[in-house]
Design brief:
The complex is a heterodimer of chains A (203) and B (600). By secondary structure, chain A is of the alpha+beta class. Chain A contains 4 helices and 10 strands, in the order βαββαββαββββαβ. The chains are: A alpha+beta (203), B alpha/beta (600).
Chain lengths: 203, 600
């Protein structure tokens, strides 16, 4: 049976890459005595899937993964045991007997706390462009990409930029690329930024 | 995590090397302890975290309420660059505090090619490199591990060395440090107190004179210090500390599994092998104890792989019993069990078949030499027939690829011994009708406290010529022959059997930018050559043949095995005479004084 787990990543957890994170979760589930199902075949791997994996460097309070157990578990016990087995930087918020299929995600809301935040005018200039072309490193080399269609919303409040960006397996835009683009097209350097995801949406 | 460190972590590769905070790592109130100990493995996190010794001592020290032991690894050069530009000194993973502010900085020295990293770590920490230049505010710097069986090349930089196994000694010097600190003793006085602990070597208490390439004298310059430093060992492995929990790294490390140390030492006595001599006598853990440890670690770590760890697992007397008991636990928990260091015979293969029900990866074994004569010289104690049978059994059992380990540059070696390596590989291929064979050939490095400690090490050009001989016999294309950079082996040999004259060379090499010498992308032979030239030290004085009557730099260290035994073994090697293993017949090597393990 499948469970959807809502969790947060804070502190050093933002530095854990997705592959390492999956291993961290599956080991924690073993410590928590949660009967995680494994795939069959030559190289069995744990049945875990993530809604919209985070890039290294971003913290979050709204992540989702699905875990398949081979025995039923009480949702509250699942949550409590897993929390006890995890390092403090990863916290389980809620566990629900459900499937990720029922929680589609295509966008994420980010709060970007900047050392040197742009003002609303700069954001207006930035968003008034027809296209926002950025280099994106792919396996085949560097590709020019128009990221504007992946920015669903952007505003600034004091030292924090709030942005709603495409997220998930279809289209995904990392918030770093947006701050880089602001610099490229407006000349404004946001300086050192802390990137934090606050919400996953289906728009 | 300070903002300063946070800022740079996004600019470097694999940031979880530096974050700490893993499951099983120790969180303590640093203001409530008497001793802050920075434990440094002078290489990358993923290498250092794979080392069992560090894991044992880390948890052992942290069991003490008065001590906080924190880990330090050498950052990769991309991180070092960032740290330098942001003025961030070397820090520990637990508190991210500067190493310079700790009471004791302990290095574990696992291979000679980490010596430049030791100095780089001191530089990055802002601690003076030389013991003589350190002040009251600096940590006391100590070092242990297998390299300290010849500590001399680092003697100007380390305040005291810890010879042998650390489980008992560590508590003794922590107690001593606490007492000295409470009494307000100076650094000098504290080190003097350390020197009274058995197995502690304070290099500044001894001086050398030289006569050309030889050491003319090696004598104490401080009153009341021992003539020889005897290594420390644990006589009863079942009743010594072993952690019930382990740190579970976020990133993938080199040995990413539970390591179950089944025994220490080795009964074989291969004449090239340092570990087989310095870790004597062979001492076992009982299967009951091992199963108990395994259960704890599985429960507390969540790892899904256990590996047995020893120098030669086949020699463990209760192997089958242990494997059967472990399988009872692992099979129902989806845990895989790996059995490295097995001799390839029917018994091993049936064990491996039991264990590896799903995955049949490659099989590795180490004939070490290509001809029977040479295997007898090195006392490998394995015949060609056994090798061929082993390979045949392996292939018949479904192992598709076989990897073979050999050495060239061994003492008393002839061209036909080298040609014998590809020829033996060919025989294995023909006899077993295997699909592919990889032959990995390394260059022999003579090590202290072995029968070959007096041997001349081949020069770079000799080794390169021998590597060419490897390629001369006509063999199947299915055999792939790999060999390593010989210049690294020569340098390793220089430091393995070097003395204090190397301290300045090491320092110069670090100034010229040498770092991570064990990593091919950083090893810079040109810089090393320049360092030797600049210091006017000829590296060949350390790779030359030594005579039985000369003073060896490591004579100060007593590992139990006597020089007489090593001489007898070297003479037997010259004649190609095989010596029986410890279990078959005691050779009176000297390790019997502990009356432990196989020596009882």
């Amino acid at each position: 049976m499948k469970y959807v787990v809502e969790f947060e990543k804070s502190g050093i957890a933002k530095y854990i890459s997705q592959l390492d994170f999956q291993r961290t979760i599956s080991r924690a589930m073993r410590r928590a005595n949660l009967p995680l199902a494994y795939s069959h075949g030559f190289n069995p791997h744990p049945q875990l899937s993530f809604a919209a994996p985070l890039a290294v460097g971003i913290s979050s309070e709204c992540e989702l993964f699905e875990a398949e157990l081979y025995e039923e578990a009480d949702e509250n016990i699942f949550s409590e045991n897993l929390n006890n087995a995890l390092p403090d930087c990863i916290r389980i918020i809620k566990v629900k007997k459900d499937s990720l299929k029922n929680c589609p995600v295509n966008a994420g809301v980010y709060k970007v706390e900047c050392e040197n935040a742009p003002d609303a005018k700069i954001i207006d200039i930035f968003m008034s462009r027809d296209t926002i072309e950025m280099d994106k490193k792919t396996k085949g080399g560097i590709k020019q990409l128009d990221i504007k269609t992946d920015i669903f919303g952007i505003s600034v409040n004091n030292n924090t930029i709030e942005m709603t960006l495409a997220a998930g397996s279809q289209r995904n835009l990392r918030p770093f690329l947006v701050t880089d683009a602001i610099k490229k097209y407006t000349g404004h350097d946001c300086g050192y930024c802390k990137y934090h995801r606050v919400k996953l949406l289906n728009m | 995590m300070t903002d300063k460190i946070d800022k740079i972590l996004l600019n470097v590769s694999k940031p979880t090397r530096y974050t700490g905070g893993e499951h099983g790592s120790c969180v303590k109130d640093k203001s409530s302890v008497d001793i802050r100990f920075a434990f440094c493995f002078p290489d990358l996190y993923e290498v250092g975290m794979s080392h069992l010794g560090l894991r044992i001592l880390y948890h052992m020290m942290n069991e003490r309420p008065d001590t906080y032991c924190e880990r330090v690894f050498l950052p990769w050069p991309d991180m070092i660059e960032q740290m330098k530009s942001e003025n961030i000194p070397l820090f520990t993973l637990e508190t991210h505090d500067s190493v310079k502010d700790f009471d004791i900085l302990g290095f574990t020295l696992q291979y000679e090619m980490c010596y430049t990293n030791v100095l780089s770590a001191l530089d990055l920490a802002g601690i003076p490199r030389r013991s003589a230049d350190r002040g009251e505010a600096d940590p006391i710097v100590c070092a242990g591990g297998p390299c300290v069986y010849n500590p001399e090349p680092l003697s100007d930089f380390i305040d005291f060395f810890l010879i042998g196994e650390g489980e008992e000694q560590t508590n003794e010097y922590l107690d001593t440090y606490k007492r000295c600190k409470a009494q307000g003793l100076s650094r000098k006085e504290t080190i003097k107190e350390f020197s009274k602990i058995s197995g502690v070597y304070v290099p500044s208490y001894y001086g050398q004179t030289y006569d050309g390439e030889r050491i003319a004298s090696f004598t104490a310059v401080e009153k009341g210090v021992p003539v020889k430093i005897k290594k420390r060992i644990i006589t009863d492995l079942d009743n010594t500390f072993f952690p019930e929990t382990i740190i579970v790294p976020y990133m993938e490390i080199v040995h990413d599994r539970i390591n179950l140390e089944i025994f220490r030492g080795c009964i074989r006595g291969c004449r090239f092998c340092q570990a087989g001599h310095v870790y004597r006598p062979t001492r076992h853990r009982s299967p009951q104890k091992l199963v108990e440890i395994a259960k704890n670690l599985i429960k507390n770590s969540g790892y899904d792989e256990i590996g047995l760890s020893s120098l030669s697992s086949s020699d463990y007397p209760h192997l089958e019993e242990l494997v059967d008991s472990l399988l009872e636990i692992t099979e129902k928990n989806n845990i895989s069990l790996s059995l490295p260091s097995l001799r390839i015979d029917n018994f091993s293969l049936s064990l491996m078949n039991k264990v590896q029900k799903v995955r049949k990866t490659g099989l590795t074994f180490a004939p070490e030499a290509g001809t029977q004569r040479m295997r007898d010289v090195i006392n490998k104690g394995i015949t060609e027939e056994e090798i061929l049978n082993g390979a045949q059994i392996a292939l018949r059992n479904g192992y598709k690829s076989i990897k073979l380990y050999f050495m060239i540059g061994l003492p008393y070696e002839e061209a036909e011994d080298i040609e014998g390596i590809p020829l033996l590989a060919q025989k294995i291929l023909t006899k077993g009708a295997g699909q592919s064979l990889t032959v990995s050939v390394s260059s022999f490095v003579p090590k202290p406290h072995t029968p070959f400690q007096w041997a001349r090490q081949d020069s770079l050009s000799e080794l390169e010529a021998k590597q060419k001989i490897l390629l001369s016999p006509k063999i199947s294309r299915k055999i792939k022959i790999n060999y390593h950079t010989s210049s690294l082996s020569v340098l390793e040999g220089v430091f393995a059997r070097g003395d204090r004259r190397l301290c300045k060379v090491l320092e110069r090499a670090v100034d010229l930018g040498c770092i991570f010498d064990g990593w091919s992308e950083y090893f810079a032979p040109d810089k090393w050559n320049k360092a030797f030239e600049d210091c006017d030290v000829d590296p060949a004085i350390f790779t030359r043949a030594r005579s039985y009557d000369e003073i060896l730099p490591w004579d100060i260290i007593d590992c139990g095995v006597t020089k007489n035994h090593l001489m007898r073994e070297n003479e037997a090697a010259k004649k190609g005479i095989v010596s029986p293993n410890c279990r078959a017949k005691c050779a009176g090597c000297g390790a019997g004084i502990w009356k432990a393990g196989e020596c009882v």
